[in-house]
Design brief:
Shape: globular
Largest sheet: none
Structural class: mainly alpha
Strand content: under 5%
Oligomer: single chain
Radius of gyration: 21 Å
Distance between the termini: 31 Å
Number of strands: 0
Helix content: over 70%
């Protein structure tokens, strides 16, 4: 009897990935004590991460039925990444108590879990309406985090308001696209792209383009990224960490998932590729230029993430298993680098890049995390960033997209400038100001994030498991899995 219930639970793991963090969020918000609320959030996030790891292992490596469609490779690959990142973000929140008032702390913990639940729901939703609603839950949770963690800074509240406005535009764009798809396809079910005849190909293509555009806005892809600097740059370290890691990874993966289903319809593939390619190229250019000129460390990390998103979209635009696998590897790389940079900045208590001068000796572990993250952003050899870029260049050249491969190389060269200056300031400059990093017993909670991000980036030394998982996921996305 117990075994039967266990098997049933494992078959419904996609549902548990949504309900576990949502129940945890409700409990965390209901408990008035900040530390007790945080402990509940940690347990809920840990349960979600374990469920995601089990589901991905069985779905990608064992070919087991895990309650999702045969096209849901993106969700299977990213769910454990998102789950582990969510756990590390919640852990780090325990060391960032000063960012949030005692009364608001339980709600901040709940919003992090709600964000994870929302993106998980969007990754495994069976139709476009459910995907949209789940992504809205995650987006609104992110807005709430920016407002709560930046309640002492009016600029952060302005950033939250910008996110509300931009999110409204993105939501309207997505809903209009869903309506057009329903009119042209006769259904909003994602699997309908693989089986149904298009009644109005042009209308459906326009709808898909609008849906892609709406999710690109939420991902912060250029030229729709105005909210990124305002939302991330001036809010508290906890909200910046959640947005920079969870929101960016979740949104870009949902975008890849939606595009992957559209690629299944030959009449739509060319248009989807054009939209993704244009947004990807713009993101590489704008993200790299703004990262080079950024003086705020959180903004630099956020703009670098936009450039990474551009590379991901360029790979996904190829519409091939090789391109999609490269996009997933680069998404993993982006998550690890963002985790390293944002947690390093939070642990040091640093806001401006100039404040990093000489901190390599005063905060060695945080400095190593930032340095390894910076090397990955450059695409330095032996890092996962290099592997992701290499796979993207291979896929682009193989498809004849030389310009896309050139854009990826340009992104790496720009990374040498904006990421290289972080390493320069940490280890080759003398400190001109006293170190104001976080102290106290709770500071050790940054440690897991440092260690995991460094290990993830150095997977580039032995990447076979990651590459096999990405290849299996890309095969599922294209509907080629048995």
């Amino acid at each position: 009897m117990i075994a039967a219930w266990f098997d049933l639970a494992r078959f419904n793991e996609p549902l548990l990935l949504v309900t576990a963090p949502l129940i945890g969020a409700a409990l965390a918000a209901a408990v008035p004590n900040a530390r007790a609320s945080w402990a509940i959030a940690v347990m809920s996030a840990a349960i979600g991460a374990l469920i995601a790891l089990d589901m991905a292992t069985r779905g990608l490596f064992e070919g087991a039925a895990v309650g999702v469609s045969r096209h849901d490779g993106a969700g299977l690959f990213i769910a454990p990444v998102l789950g582990i990142a969510g756990l590390l973000v919640v852990l780090a929140f325990g060391a960032l108590a000063k960012d949030v008032s005692t009364r608001a702390a339980p709600f901040a913990n709940a919003l992090v879990l709600a964000s994870v639940a929302g993106w998980n729901g969007a990754l495994f939703a069976g139709d476009l309406v459910s995907m949209f609603l789940a992504s809205e839950v995650a987006w609104i949770a992110g807005v709430g985090l920016v407002a709560i963690c930046g309640e002492r800074d009016r600029a952060a509240l302005n950033g939250a308001m910008q996110m509300v406005i931009v999110g409204g535009v993105g939501a309207a764009t997505t809903l209009l696209g869903v309506g057009l798809i329903n009119n042209g396809l006769g259904s909003v079910e994602l699997l309908a792209f693989t089986t149904a005849q298009l009644r109005a190909p042009n209308v459906t293509a326009l709808g898909v383009g609008l849906v892609v555009l709406g999710f690109a806005i939420k991902a912060g892809a250029a030229p729709f990224h105005a909210w990124v600097g305002a939302g991330v740059g001036r809010t508290g370290a906890g909200a910046a960490l959640a947005l920079g890691v969870l929101a960016s990874v979740g949104a870009v993966t949902v975008l890849i998932r939606a595009a992957g289903f559209a690629f299944a319809a030959p009449e739509l593939g060319g248009g989807v590729a054009a939209v993704l390619g244009a947004i990807g190229a713009a993101s590489v250019v704008f993200g790299s230029l703004q990262a080079v000129g950024a003086r705020n460390l959180k903004r630099l990390a956020a703009y670098a993430g936009i450039a990474q998103i551009g590379c991901i979209l360029l790979s996904a635009a190829l519409g091939s298993p090789a391109g999609l696998a490269a996009a997933l590897v680069q998404t993993f790389s982006m998550c690890a680098a963002a985790l390293a940079l944002f947690t390093g900045a939070a642990a040091m208590g640093v806001v401006n890049v100039a404040s990093l001068d000489g901190l390599g000796r005063r905060a060695p572990l945080a400095s190593v995390a930032i340095s390894v993250g910076a090397l990955s952003l450059m695409g330095a050899p032996l890092t996962i960033g290099f592997l992701g870029r290499w796979r993207m260049i291979e896929a682009g050249v193989g498809a004849g997209w030389w310009w896309a491969a050139a854009a990826v190389v340009a992104a790496s060269l720009a990374g040498v400038f904006y990421a290289g200056k972080l390493i320069d300031r940490l280890y080759f400059r003398k400190s001109s100001a006293p170190y104001i990093g976080e102290g106290g017993a709770w500071r050790w909670l940054f440690g897991p994030a440092f260690v995991v991000s460094i290990v993830a980036i150095l997977i580039g030394l032995e990447p076979i498991v990651l590459l096999n998982a990405a290849d299996a996921a890309a095969t599922r996305i294209m509907g080629l899995a048995p």
